[in-house]
Amino acid sequence: MLIDINAYTGHWPFKQLHGNSCEGLLSRMKEYGTDMSVITNLNGVFYKNTQSANDELYGEVRSKRAFNDRFLPFGIINPIYAGWKDDFNTCVKNYGMKGIRVFPNYHDYTIDDPNLVELVKMARDADVAVALTMRVVDSRQRSWMDLSTEWGLKDYVPLLRSVPDARFMLLNLSTPLAISEGDEKTIKNGNVLMDTSGRYITHFANYVKRFGKNKFAFGTHFPVFDYYTGLLRIESLRKEEADEADRELFRHLNAKQFLKL
Amino acid sequence: MNRRNFVRNMATSASGIILGSGLLQATEADAQIPPNAGAEGRIKKMMSYRKLDAHVHLGLSNDPPELNVDFAERLGIDRMFLSKPVTRGPGAPEDFRACNDVILAAMKRYPGKLSGMLTLNPTYKKESLEEIKRCTGEGMIGIKVYYQVKINDPLFYPIIEKAAEMKMIILMHAEASLGIGGYRMKYDQKIKPLASIPEDFIEAAARYPEAMLQYAHTGGGPDWEYACKALRNSPNVYVDVSGSNNENNMVEFAVKTLGEGRVLFGSDNMYYQSVGKIMDARLTEEQKKKIFFDNYHNILKKGGYHVD
Fold it and tell me: Is the Cβ pair B272, A244 closer than 8 Å?
């Protein structure tokens, strides 16, 4: 079994994406034998009212049985926009979402914003995951209208420390992973799951050694990234680096346990 | 079937047993295995493509050549074309000679796996031409240059002329990022002022149509759509799709814009992404074979540097 914990539908305003619909993603999933995907509507990064994107996603997922069976939609919540608590409750209670995503840098608030901390506590209390995306695209080839700065892993860690009993997903590890010993301990001790899509995972076996084999799960960051690279990191492990049981953790067991599927 | 049942049912029919890639022996027939053949079939298919890594380094980090060889074996890369450009300081002759010595030592250690590309600094014309002679005499087959001098600078003319005479490709570090090297200087980051941007390649390629230039790493940070569109009408500029960026459609866009004969596989030491993006590209088997192997091999053949 295979579960992708980091996929999207929707548009990126500065570049044409391919396969960026539920149908497009499902087609890749069938090609690679992926059974389920966590999916988020990229439009919500750019809509001021992110709930419109969550409604779009929920509607599309509900429109077809295959989508409903195989997609795990995550809503995007902007905790400094009016009605965000209602948005959270709609996503979790009405739509049954198992997680939310936040984009502090795109939505212009800091990692220690009290509303964000409150949102994460709400997520913890509702037993849903909070996904933090290190970046969506590479700032080196950004549009002149896009953000010029990126956040490294260390910039997100304070939130993990603020609500240590919440469940966090750290996705697309493509910004610097240099962190202090204390930050590393926070990640290792926390209820944290990272995906395999990010460019800084230059030698997957070493990162498994560093953070532990229960900390990683297959993720694509598709359709921003190609579909295969995140999987290749797992499939090209040598036998002495990961046995079949370990590979099963990365392919689906860690995701299943973390998301309580 | 609801989601819970779906998960339960799928868990009992695991999608396939994965073998360590080092154990798999690829055959020609494996290229025909569809990607949905499961993990084992997918790895075998990936391993079945012959691969020449047209852009890879040694000595820019603490990683030893054993790591290059490990990934070559892990991902089925026949040969890596290795270089160590001068990335700090003035790039004086003693600097580029020392870099080349690192590569020469690795070539000797792994003669079947690692080939060398020499580096130089055109500011030092005499010493650079001497270095070409020294390094090619020891088996190096191409030139890798960084941003000490732009590719279209007159200082580069004697180097390009020598490379064209020897039918060697010049791999030049390239940028198309806001404010770097002259690209949209409104956003000037005041770094790398002498980095080569697509327009610099166009000018050099037009002046020397007999030369072969390699625009480095469309996945290494530059705006790859801009770069490919700019280079469209410069037939003697090849692009390698190496680099850490594995954006969906990058390889397809390069093929569509430049033609399937001008796109090269390279890793820039970002091994997973560089293989993954080509494997996943919506291209034909034949196109993938060209990108992974044939295109670069044809370049090498021109100077008699081919691997077969």
Answer: no
